[in-house]
Write a structure and sequence with these properties.
Elements lengths: L3 E6 L4 E6 L2 E3 L5 E4 L3 E4 L4 E6 L2 H11 L5 H9 L1 H21 L16 E8 L4 E8 L9 E2 L2 E4 L4 H6 L9 H18 L9 E8 L2 E9 L8 H8 L1
Helix pairs in contact: 1-3
């Protein structure tokens, strides 16, 4: 599992999405660096997520046929897309179970590998930037939830409170980076499933378009295991 942190300002209308770029094997070894945000400039929308990339890649293919954000949301809302995601996650569960036996300390249901998705974009119907999230961990798998803020993985409330966003939008990217640093440290110091690192990539979405830039890099290398990442945090 990686990290995705999303905040939306309604006035002025702007969304900040901060993700890491680490890719790793089921045995928790760094295998490369990858983009965690898929952009759709024509639709003023983007898709990000945590968990196996297969689900996200299938959605990218579906969303490529959509004209705007609202149509993408409708695709996610339909039973067809939901059943497709559920079939994929069942296959992933079987494949990963063959590679390793999930541990009770992973903080997840045995045999269920978490998938979290978030679609952000300009909604013509609402007249503003919106975000909808879906996960196979909710009571109704992949049921859509709307929110102007999403931080994943979750942190203790005290850590989130210490990085509360100010009224100055210019400070939001650095605040999100501070949260991402905490997520990286917390996931490595605790028995959790995430490996977070590589680069911190900031994606900014406005009514005018989408931009991306790297705002931080960690000294992670291909072949590193979780213990090596942890030694750099200690």
């Amino acid at each position: 599992m990686s990290a995705m942190n999303i905040v939306i300002s309604r006035e002025p209308p702007i969304a900040f999405v901060l993700t890491d770029s680490l890719a790793y094997t089921p045995l928790r070894r760094v295998s490369g660096f990858a983009a965690k945000v898929h952009t759709f400039p024509h639709a003023k929308a983007l898709l990000t997520g945590r968990g196996n990339a297969v689900c996200i890649n299938r959605l990218v293919a579906l969303f490529g046929r959509c004209a705007d954000f609202d149509e993408m949301v409708e695709v996610l809302r339909t039973g067809c897309a939901r059943h497709l995601l559920m079939r994929i996650t069942r296959v992933i569960d079987v494949m990963l179970a063959m590679l390793r036996r999930p541990s009770p300390c992973d903080g997840r249901a045995r045999g269920v590998n978490p998938i979290e998705l978030c679609l952000v974009g300009y909604s013509r119907s609402a007249g503003r930037i919106k975000a909808v999230a879906a996960s196979n961990q909710t009571q109704i798998p992949f049921d859509l939830l709307s929110s102007d803020a999403l931080l994943a993985p979750r942190l203790p409330s005290a850590d989130v409170e210490s990085h509360r966003l100010s009224n100055d939008l210019k400070t939001w990217p650095l605040s999100l980076l501070s949260i991402l640093e905490c997520q990286r440290e917390y996931s490595l110091q605790n028995a959790r499933d995430e490996m977070i690192g590589g680069a911190a990539v900031l994606t900014t979405l406005t009514e005018d378009g989408i931009t991306q830039r790297v705002i931080h890099r960690w000294p992670d290398k291909i072949g590193d295991d979780k213990a090596m990442l942890k030694s750099r945090v200690a």
